Each structure stands twice: as C-alpha cells, then as structure tokens.
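Chapter review: from sequence to fold.
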Amino acid sequence: MEKQLDFFIDTLTNSIEKVSSGERFDTEVILIEKDNLTLVTKKNGWKFNWKLEFRDPKNEVYKLVVVEIPEVIQGLLCLTVETDHIYMNLLESAPSNIGQTKEFQGVAGNLVAFACKRSFECGFDGNVAFTAKTKLIQHYIQTLGACVIAGQRMAILEREARFLINKYYNS
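The token string follows.
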C-alpha cells in the first residue's frame, strides 16, 4: 500500500528560518548515511521507520541539514526515480521542527523543492508525484501549487516546480 504523505507546509522560505529570531540558515540536502539511521528512530521522536526506506534499493533517502551544524538532521525525504517523474514516498520534519514550539520553519518546503530539483536533474521537467492524506489535499494545492491526478495522487508540475526551486535555491 502506498504511504499517504501528511507533512505540513508551514511557510515557504528562502532556506529554513529559526522561528524565534527569523534568522535564515543555509541548508544542504544530502544522501543519508547508514550511521545516521540511529538518530532518526521512533525512540527519538520520529514518526516513521526510516530504516525500511533506506533498505529498499530503489529508494533515495536524503537528509536536510543546516550547513553550520551538519550533524543535526532537520528533515528527511525518501524519493524513487520512476520512468518519467520523481515519486515522493515519505517526507518528515525532525520532531524539533513540528508543532507550536518548533525550532525551524520551512523544512518541508525545502525538501519538496529538492524533490523538484532532483526531477529536473533526471530530465523529468520538475514533475513530482505523491499520495496525500485526504485532509491535506487542499493544503498542498494552496501551498505547493500541486494538482490532483486521481484520487489522492497529486503532482507538482514544471511551472510550480520551478517556482519552488527558485524560492529555495536561487535566493
């Protein structure tokens, strides 16, 4: 069964912003290493079993880090390169970046922008697909410019993908 994504786009920023100060931080999205998996467990407050995503050879699992503190994972993204698009299997902000007391905002938007960038790198014109939880479909339409393909399957197409990439990578 496909996972239904339930990440929340708190704001689209030019990077990620510290909620308490509004200060922006440079980030990078890099493939996660096996050693990092001990940091992203349910015991540490993460919702999903990232070891399962990492073990699947068709998946690419990425971590979002602040350049100055690369040892702290701000969010995770699991992608699959399909024949003509990127599929977002799973996206999760770090427990410290969720809720009223979150440290950084813009994490989920940053990871979605990376998925769009990866799609262009693969020659897919920025096309990214994912399956959304029903209650978040309208949220993704409004915040990401995503469109419904069928049922809960959604896509971000070229124009919206370029917008997100420009927001996060050309600032």
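Two observations follow directly from the output. The mean pLDDT is 91. Residues 107-121 form the longest helix (15 residues).
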